[in-house]
């Protein structure tokens, strides 16, 4: 396994899966049949912190759901692909759009659908409640579960490795 901190120093783009990473992976339906999702506010603030110091954020999800689209829009994430199960070509396209090599991109996933991208990304990230194959493919695994601050933890890890964590913090302390 490669040194995750060394890999994180190169990261300029962080691409995220949704279900099981940005959410707890559950599908919640109300009596009216409307789908609801739970997102962590800490993850959202982490995304805003990352954007403020120049780390690009992208999302690729296998499902196309309105609650996810709303959250992605609220967070100002420009690079978003939904309803796509073959994620590797989209990851490579996103890298090209942002102007980074795949080695300068990190990907955080939790299931088989994420493995191809995890193997291609410069830094593969996962959550402790991921399937075993995703954990094995990861260079770094958060201590927090998906939907419970795992993305914020990953962002803090990347920003610290890149020497940007204090700069991000100062935006909120001053």
Question: Mind explaining what this structure looks like?
Answer:
With 174 residues, the protein is an alpha/beta fold. It contains 8 helices and 8 strands, in the order H-E-E-E-H-E-H-E-H-E-H-E-H-E-H-H. Strands 5-4-1-6-7-8 form a 6-stranded parallel β-sheet, sandwiched between helices. A two-stranded antiparallel sheet has the order 2-3. Helix 3 links the parallel strand 4 and strand 5. The mean pLDDT is 94.
In spatial order, strands of the major sheet run 5-4-1-6-7-8
Q: From the helix content, strand content and strand pairing, which structural class follows?
A: alpha/beta
Stretches with pLDDT under 50, minimum 5 residues: none
* SSE order, one letter for each helix or strand: HEEEHEHEHEHEHEHH
Count of helix runs: 8
Which labels suit this protein?
single chain, 174 residues, alpha/beta, six-stranded parallel sheet, two-stranded antiparallel sheet, 8 helices, 8 strands, 16% strand, globular
Structure in a nutshell:
This protein is of the alpha/beta class and 174 residues long. Helix content is 41%, strand content 16%. The strands form two sheets. A six-stranded parallel sheet has the order 5-4-1-6-7-8, sandwiched between helices. A two-stranded antiparallel sheet has the order 2-3.
């Amino acid at each position: 396994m490669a040194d995750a901190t060394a890999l994180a120093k190169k990261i300029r783009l962080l691409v995220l899966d949704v279900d099981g990473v940005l959410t707890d992976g559950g599908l919640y339906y109300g009596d009216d049949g409307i789908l609801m999702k739970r997102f962590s506010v800490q993850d959202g603030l982490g995304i805003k912190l990352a954007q403020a110091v120049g780390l690009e954020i992208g999302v690729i999800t296998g499902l196309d759901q309105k609650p996810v689209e709303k959250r992605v829009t609220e967070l100002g994430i420009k690079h978003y692909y939904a309803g796509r199960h073959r994620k590797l070509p989209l990851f490579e396209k996103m890298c090209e759009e942002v102007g980074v090599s795949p080695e300068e991109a990190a990907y955080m996933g939790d299931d088989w659908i994420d493995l191809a991208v995890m193997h291609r990304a410069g830094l593969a990230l996962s959550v402790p409640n991921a399937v075993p194959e995703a954990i094995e493919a990861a260079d770094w695994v958060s201590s927090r579960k998906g939907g419970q601050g795992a993305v914020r933890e990953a962002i803090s890890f990347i920003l610290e490795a890149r020497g940007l964590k204090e700069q991000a913090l100062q935006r909120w302390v001053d």
